[in-house]
Amino acid sequence: MPAPHNPFKAALNAGEMQLGCWLGLADPYVAEISAHAGFDWLLLDGEHAPNDLRSLLAQAQVIAASNSHAVVRPVIGETWMIKQLLDAGIQSLLVPMVESAEQARELVAAVTYPPHGVRGVGSALARASQFSGIPDYLQTAREEICLLVQVENRKGMAALDEILEVDGIDGVFIGPSDLAADMGHIGKAGHPDVKAAVLDALKRIKAAGKAPGILTLDPEMQKECAEIGVTFLATDIDVTLFAKAIRGSAAAAKALRK
Ligand SMILES: O=C(O)C(=O)C[C@H](O)[C@@H](O)CO
């Protein structure tokens, strides 16, 4: 019995566009609502949301009962963080702030058991192996792990071609917000220079045979990304959806006041 099949990774490998939503409310109740909304994948943000291993695990557990797939973004690509997330049963990772091929190779090693990698062997007590319920987990785990990296500054963009040559990286996400900041246009992810750099990078990722990914709330940019063949496209954020809705609700309520 092998490690659980990763349908998200399989879809990326087949070039099938996967539509996702960013989850930053860091709550399993919200994750459960989101999991049944119809998105192919849900990004559990460990970088910019108040998540820790336990909260990420709780959200992944409720998502596992749906047709959505949990993709976890750790705070940074530290080997020990990746080890804990993989043992918790996370099979798809989006690692932020990748700037070099060397860093990409280290991340591939972090998701690979020895002798070809450095992932610690602890599957005997891990959710990932269904608590030793999967006899062949150690031999089959790597194939079902989807490793995505974020390129989101000028250094990473300059190294993109080398990063794309690293075996074991399944896809590259371009981070418009951080890239805009590093390009001197902080808060302006839609700046023409930023947009041009993002679209060019996404085309290069596609041409290299890797899965291109992005988060954009801009409908026009979403259409352009779909036309390019972006394979993992996040189109919304739970935090902004809720904040906008509840502010609108409060405003409507206040309008009742004489
Ligand atoms: O740089 C980006 O854009 C991203 O990596 C996504 C952001 O971190 C996300 O929080 C939306 O702003």
UniProtKB/TrEMBL annotation:
Q: Which reaction does it catalyse?
A: D-glyceraldehyde + pyruvate = 2-dehydro-3-deoxy-L-galactonate
What do the Gene Ontology cellular component annotations say?
Answer: cytoplasm
The GO annotation for biological process reads: phenylacetate catabolic process
Reported cofactor(s): a divalent metal cation
Domain HpcH/HpaI aldolase/citrate lyase, which positions? 18-244
What family is this?
A: Belongs to the HpcH/HpaI aldolase family.
Question: Which PANTHER family does the protein's record reference?
Answer: 2-KETO-3-DEOXY-L-RHAMNONATE ALDOLASE (PTHR30502), PHOSPHOENOLPYRUVATE CARBOXYLASE FAMILY PROTEIN (PTHR30502:SF0)
- Indicate what this protein is called per its UniProt record: Hydroxypyruvate/pyruvate aldolase
Q: Which organism is it from?
A: Tritonibacter litoralis
Q: What is the lineage of its organism?
A: Bacteria, Pseudomonadati, Pseudomonadota, Alphaproteobacteria, Rhodobacterales
- Which gene is transcribed and translated to give this protein? hpaI
